[in-house]
Amino acid sequence: MTNMSKGKNPFILTIFFVLLASNLFAQALPSEKEFFARDKLIEHLFSITDIMVTDVTSPPGAARFYAYSLMAAYLVYSDTENFNEVPLFQQLQSPFDKLDPNFTLEREGVNLAFASTYAMLEVGKNIMPSGKKLTTAQETLISEYSKEKLIRKKALKRSIRYAEKIAAVILDYATEDGYRQLSTLKRYSPTKGQGKWYPTPPAYMAAIDPEWRTIRPFFLENLPSFSPPPPAEYSEDKNSSFFTQLTEIYEVTSQLTEEQKLIANFWDCNPFNVSYSGHMAIGLKKISPGGHWIGITGIASQKAGLGFEESLYIHTLVAMGLHDAFISCWDEKYRSDRIRPLTAINQLIDEAWRPILQTPPFPEYTSGHSVISKTSAVLLTSYFGENFNFIDTSEVFFGLPERAFDSFLKASNEAAISRLYGGIHFRDAIEVGMQQGEKIANYILERTNSHQNRLIEDSQKPVK
């Protein structure tokens, strides 16, 4: 007797299971409300970026602001008073430990997605110099959720109160990371001697954030263990590694292709860029390196169809990674205190030479963009996969065209080599910087992978 005679048509059964699987997959997708909440998170994170650009926030400072703002959002959505139960925060000292014993959080009736984004803006509002402007973003957020009928008046009040309480906890936590003490530390002066960093034209700005190594990291308890090997020693010997690298910069920048010029400008990300018109200095709006990778994180979250929780997680992870990567990089910058190519080429090869990018106001080694780009790319690759292609529109707002990439790692490699095309970094600062960034990212992943894997697995399960 055949299966057909038993009424079990294998073709029909196949169609049934295909339809069943399709239905389960559809159920597993985030809802439209999730997409709405995710998109509002990303949009209002750019509101924070816009304030940083206006304030000309330093690259390390921008990473710090992103980290604490997103930590508040992530803590709200984690819906717990136990800081150490939050996966990304498990190794950190809990800010709840120092609160009044009577401190309570009323979660009933709170719209956690709304409260998360509101708390993010609340921290940004209070932690950045021009943060008060984010009041407008908060008002817009309220209007957006109300218009979609996703939050009613009673829930709105409860959600704002909850968000403000969590934001206050994170803001208190941030006051103890050493940032406030930076202005009290000994004033930095350039070191005299061959091969040492010195302010560069056209603005000859003072060194930025020379004591940033004193800021408390999130993951890197033993900062020296992430220190790279020292750079090639300064030498005027034309056969030395230093002079060979110097010559490479001079030769490469003298014959740049149009594509190389585009790459250099796309990844410039120098918030201190200044243009002169006569005696008037004009600051040019540019996103920070960290801001560029936060933008890429948002682009990837939307392309992958992530829901709110996953998007919030990966943004927070990248922001905290950026924060620690900058601390490690700045620790090395002011230890090696290496001369910039502009200064060395003017002294040793061609006094009239200028790079196509304006040289940032801090020592050269290691390359900050190389370090933080590789850190971000490794973290994103661990979440989205090795061959995740995307179109990077992060710089469109600032007048630059979009660029397509086959993977995060390829994007980070391009960001790194852009510093050579731009004439602002030696090759060893670029290559060693990428190694430094990868080491930082891998260490962070060791501490967070168990939760990340669970989050990814949960997102793939069908909804029952």
TrEMBL record:
Lineage of the organism: Bacteria, Pseudomonadati, Bacteroidota, Cytophagia, Cytophagales
Pfam families for this protein: PAP2 (PF01569)
Residue stretches making up the Phosphatidic acid phosphatase type 2/haloperoxidase domain: 317-441
Name by which UniProt lists this protein: Phosphatidic acid phosphatase type 2/haloperoxidase domain-containing protein
InterPro entries per UniProt: PAP2/HPO, PAP2/HPO_sf, V-haloperoxidase
Domain of life of the source: Bacteria
